[in-house]
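Researcher: Hi, I'm a grad student and pretty new to this. My advisor asked me to get structures for two proteins we've been looking at. I'm not sure of the right format, so I'll just paste the first sequence and hope you can take it from there.
Model: That works fine. Here's the first sequence with its structure tokens right after it:
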Amino acid sequence: MDTDPRQLDHIVVHDSDIHNIVLSYLVHNCFNETADSLVSSTGLKQPENYLEGMDRRKRIIKFTLEGKALKAVELTEHLAEGMLEKNKELHFDLLSLHFVELLCARNCTEALQFARTRLAPFGKDQKYVEKLEDVMALLAYEDPEKSPMFHLLSFEHRQRVADNLNRAILEHANLPSYTPMERVIQQVTVVRQYLKQESGKDGFPPFSLKDFLQS
């Protein structure tokens, strides 16, 4: 049964609810100083289970974004033992980051040796063959940034790997891998798409928030 939207008018959202949503986002993304400030200013109860390991997660994310993938792997194996062994795709992505850094530093010989010893074994699994070929294709270019696989060198790619690693670590610790704020945004997006579709039916013009606010 569909919920009457008018019933939503009676839902009370308390400041503490909003504060908890913001706090969960800050802790998820390892903004520990900002999280501490929010707790101090609002009197929120510190979520001990979330704060545990947050500093180490922050270091892991930092190393990943800086391209120091082997250091990130080492710290991850200490914080979430056995996780990378189970999540081979994430492990491959991290090792690929190190391979890329070697190429960017013009250490081609070392990069080739690393690929043979650490990346090539993934090729035994068909699902990694294409990804392995994409990474190895960088060797054919004197300037990897001009290759068709240049996105593997981008900060956006490192950010994606870091985000996936952070979520995997949280999930390994039986903690939510997505924050309430992210879920709210997802739900709002779905609702907006639904309203946009519905507003175009039965001859009604599409809903415009700008026109609505100016009316």
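Researcher: Oh nice, that was easy. Here's the second one.
Model: And its structure:
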Amino acid sequence: MRPLTDDETKTMFEKLSKYIGENIKHLVDRPDGTYCFRLHNDRVYYISETILKLATNISRDKLVSVGTCFGKFTKTIKFRLHITALDFLAPYAKGFGVAAKSTQECRRVDPMSIVVFHQADIGEFIRSEDTLT
């Protein structure tokens, strides 16, 4: 488990900023302690620094995972978010999706058109079907 390089950090933060904007700083400096991102087998883990210090006692080849997997780097060095990151991103984001159409187009589309592509959803529609508009 190693810290991310500058290029890896930039790539990951660019992806995160699409969903939570400037709130990335709230992921690292939390009131319950300091958290960091670490890379292990092309996967990025979000981990408390206190847990990270305890994990140094385990050799790298024996370590499977520690912390929460935020995503992974592909072979072409693109960062893909995993659904396990949703619990940490949801408090800082309004919706977790990408717009399929511009705001102007959304006003004129028919009711059955796709407006937002969902990146991840853990049953939000089923839980709050009555309150969604």
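Researcher: Is there anything I should tell my advisor about the second?
Model: You could mention this: Residues 28 and 34 are 6 Å apart (CA to CA).
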